[in-house]
Fold this protein.
Amino acid sequence: MSEELTQRVLKVIATSKRIPLEQVTIDGDFQQLNIDSMDAVEILFALENEFDINIPDDDVREVRNVRQMVEGVARLVASKNGAAPADAAAGQ
Amino acid sequence: MRRVAITGMGAICALGRDVSEFSAAVFEGKSGIGRIESADCSTMRFQNGAEVRGYRHQPYFDDRRADFLDRFAQFAVIAAREAVAGAGIEWTSELRETAAIITGSCVGGQSTEDIGFHEVYKLGHNRVHPLTIPKTMANAGASHISMEFGITGPSFTFSTACSSAAHAIGQAFWMIRGGITDLAITGGSEAPFSFGILKAWEAMRVVSPDTCRPFSKDRRGMVLGEGGAMFVLEPLEAALARGARIHAEIVGFGMSADANHITQPSAEGAARAMRAALKDAGLAPEQVGYINAHGTATPTNDVTETAAIRSVFGPHAGRLAVSSTKSMHGHALGAAAALECLAATLTLRDGILPPTANFNEYDPECDLDVVPNCPRRADVEYALSNSFAFGGLNAVLALRKA
């Protein structure tokens, strides 16, 4: 996952939840960040707008932490851009 | 305090255009959920809903009358007509002056409003239809019922999301019981299938991509429904004196607020509302034989509701039957509690438990007798009907076999 994409996702989470950016790290989990299921739905909405992607319900079922969210976004951005996920992981 | 009888019932929803069609479907376990016709949902995360398929305002209303009525208000009047006709009321001028009309609706005539917004924002028109406000207002159902029957008594509308009709019926029950009125027409109606509102529901990610499977381990959320159901309530003594048919009695009404979360339910809040209904009815938990659940089939509601039922009923929870008829008529929002009160009334009257349809797999977190898929004969004396709305506003009705 590129560093730039990661930072954008962290910023979306912090803005949506209205918490300081410093509190949101790649290793954070939702429970620790006090993100409940309604907060998560709002964050997904903001991510869809930020990256112009569509996040299917099935993709979000198991997501419990920031890293999984970043990875999910990276996958969707990559498939939107026509690249295989492995190419995206190699960095932009 | 007077006992309160249900002497008239009317309904229109995905299961049929009247109570007899509703009853036949619900006691067959037949689901009215199918592909949504009223809006183009092809690009949405869900395509299914429980609509009144192929509904046209004729023959219910002539064209000019229909001009004044949003679909949700049409459903309210249609259901009220059936209820009033079935009750065989002999209208006197005193009765017309004192009868109450109490309805529930979440979004009222929002599809009319949606058309207006489309015209203004998308098409850039300089005007919308002048009847937009009178058609959109959530009280339109109650107003049109009052005009239909010339009722000039206390008439109003509750809007408490998924509990709207329960609050309405409960309030009407208290007004009759307390001697404030001798007749009430009460229930709810909703018609939420406009593109804009469906997009709003889609955004919450609570709507199922396939069907409504309450309490089933593979449930994936709710399915929206539409329709209306209305009841005529009278003091039991008066009903008996005039030889009216008594479908059931309403014996209790309980409410609570969760004070917890704007969308997530609370087992404590739900339990408190059930206990309040039992207390209002003077019932012990062990006397209840059937609960018509709120049972939306969201992963959260069904677990929370199970926990609440276990908390209130203790070991008896394993002996009573709990089913969700939302599996068949969908989640009709402001009409939901009215359709469900109807199901509970028919259960008591006809001695059949409606099943939870579309049930595939037992969920250990919903360890109740959910009457999966097949209806069952059962002689039930007391039933509850649960409604636990967004915003944590809970309302529970208690009914008794007549």
Summary: The CA atoms of residues 12 and 50 of chain A lie 8 Å apart. The mean pLDDT of chain A is 89. The interface with chain B takes residues 36-38, 41, 44-45, 56-57, 60 of chain A (CB under 8 Å). Residues 3-17 of chain A form the longest helix (15 residues).
